[in-house]
Every structure is written in structure tokens, then in C-alpha cells.
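MFS transporter: structure, please.
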Amino acid sequence: MFKNIRQLTPFSAVLLAIAFIMSISQSTMTTTYPILMASFHVDASTVQWLTTGFMVAMTLVMPLSPWLLDNILLKPLLNGIVTVFVIGTAIAMLTPSFAGIIVGRLLEGIAVGALFPTFQSVIIENTAKSDRGITMGVVGLVMGSALAVGPIISGIVLQYVSWRALFGLFLVTLIVLIVSLQPLIENTHTIHHSKFDWVSAITLIGFGGLLYSLSTISNTKLTITWWLIVIISVALLVVFVIRQISHQQPFLNLSVFKYRGFAPAMILTGLSYSGLITATVLMPLFYQRVFHITPLWSGLLMVPAAVVLSQLNPRAGYLLTRIGLKNLVYIGMVMMIIGYFLLNQLGTQSWFIGLVAAILLEGGNAFIMMPAVTAANNVLPKELVSHGTAVITTMRQVIGAGSVVIVGILVTHFSQIVAIGVALSRTSGWFIFVPVIGILLAMRLPHTKN
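Here you go.
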């Protein structure tokens, strides 16, 4: 891992370090679900909004990242992003109510949503196409490993101290990091000033409306109000797309879809991310609710999957130039199918089965997500890289957030009629359809090396 990181420029390494710390928080709450459910008397469909709300906030901000890059120098932009994250973390740490944690997580999500496409765009722009595969493999360590490490860290912390210490840990670490690395932050992106399009910004609320509607399907009737939210949300997104196409300086330049290979690669990143995020949600529930394993050991049992993910990400970037995206997708999706199948058929038999399944799900992600991001951006001219990255990260989060919502819905539904172990196994079985769709999509990819 460290050998690959040394290949980055000092500034890219700074971006990587900050993104690593901030992105860990994306999954760190999953291990705390049982504790928070008992402490605040909320059910599974409510507590999962600590993850879903975070991801919705990310999704709302991601389309704005090209505008932020073009209008704010990187150093003040990065410092502002970290400040928002620190404020949100402090609120979540100190609040006496569950609603306060939600507010804090939303602010954290806004910050991470601004950071992810920004740091990926900057790294891609400053890397030659021939080196992007390996470089983005290193970025995959941040996107994947940090997500997998979250439950591990939270499990260790929860074994000895309160859940509030989790937020305190990220708060202190990030403040020390951003202050100490100030001399290394560079303004490498060219500024192109443009007016802020408030109409486009407001229409992005449609993403949140759709995800909210999806999350309430299991515990509410499909009332007129529910349908109104869905219709208004879809209408807002249609207006957003039309405005991006017609606006001279759009938030998102949707001409990226005109480049062959961009769209399928974008969808594949979302499907692979679904496997990763569902693993980090399902496995702590299997370990703690079925096998009654402590939060500490629940987190530690995620270590092998995180290690495998970390090792495979750079290697997958290297293989991208050797065997091409299509073959990598086949490998990754087959691993995910086997992982879900094991959880569905044998998940309640042994915690070791869960450990193997988590390795397969997270390892499969390594062969797909960052190689697909690299392949998608390689077909774009440099001036569209930031827009392509924003589109990819936005759609990836939509699919990921939707996956978390569906996990909550299925687990809540099945647990009302069967034991929790059977409910988790059945939920895993439904997710086999995700990698199957990925394989069907990969069949449409050209047999080329990227």
C-alpha cells in the first residue's frame, strides 16, 4: 500500500490522506446500529438514515463539484470542506438527541460529497493516461479500504468507550492533519469563473426526494403525499437535466455521455459499490444479531476483507491495461455472486462463512469500481474530467444509498415474519441480482484494453 502511495505527488498524497479520514466516517456508524437503536429507541429503518442521510447529502453536493473547482482556489476550497466536516462531527459528538446525530451526519456528508469528486478530478488531471490505472488503484484504497475500515475502528472504540468517542477520534485526527499539511496544499486546477446557477442547485433536491420516498415504502402506505413527493422529485431532476443541456456553463456537462464507453462504466461503478456498501451494513448485523459477537470482534472480523480489498485495488489498476475492463468486471461480479450466495445459503451456519463472503464482496469491488472510473475518464478530454468524475460519483452514491435503503427495507420486512438470521439471509439472496445485472452490462463493453 505505502509503496503505491509513494508514487503520488506530495499534494495528491495530502488529498488522499484527508479523503481517507473523512471517508472512513461513511461506514463507521454501521457497527453502532444496535447500540444506537437501544439508546434512542429507534428501529432499523430509522437508524439506517445515519448512513443513508449521509449518502443523500453527498449526492446533493457532488454535482456542484465542477463549479466549486472552477470558481474557488483549491487551498481555500479544501480548507472549507474540512471545516464543514469538523462542524458536523462536533455537533454529532455533543448532541443529546438522535436528531442531532442526523444533522451532524448530514454536514459530514456534504463535506465528503464535495471532496470525493474534487480530489479524484485533481489527481486524474495531473496524471498521464498511461499511469491512471495504477494511480486510481491507489485512490481505490481510499474509496474502498476506508469504507471497509469504518466498522473495524468503530468496533474497537465501542468495546472500550462511548459511541461519542468515534466522532471525537475523527474530529481530532482531521484537525491535526489539515493544520500540519497546509504547506503541501497546491492550487493546481485552473480557475474559470462562472455564476452560480441557483435553479440547478434547487432542482438537485429531487435526488433526496426520491431516496426518501424509497426509504418509506416499507413502513407507510402509498398515499397521495408519497406519490406527490415522487412526482415532484422526478420533475425536479428532469428540469435539472434539461437545464444542464441548455445552460452555457452547466454544473454538469452531460456531453460526457456522448463518449462511447462512459455510460456503462459509470453504471458498473455503482453496481460494484452496492456490493461494498451492503457488505459493511449486513456483516455487522450477521455478527452481532445472529452470532452475538461483541462490537469489537464484529469490527475485527471485517479486517480480512479490508486487507484483501487494499491489496487488490492497485493490482486491479495494473490489470486494467493488461486484460481490459470487460474481463475485470467478469471476475469481480462472479466473486460478488458467490459472496451473496454464501450469505443466502449458509450465512447463519457460521461466522466464518460471513468472513469469506465479505472478502468476496469487497474483493469483487476492487476489480470493478476504480478500473471502471479510470476507463470512463480515459475516453474524455481533460476539460471534461471534472464533469465526468462528478457524474460518476453522483450516480455511484445514488445506487449505493438506494442499496442501503433496500437493505433496511428487506431486513425490517423479513424480520417481522422470520428470525433475524433468516431475514438477513433472504436479504442477501435478493442482492444476487445486482452482480448478475453487472455481468449482462459487461457483455456490452468492447473487448479493448483501457
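Notes: Residues 195-248 form one domain.
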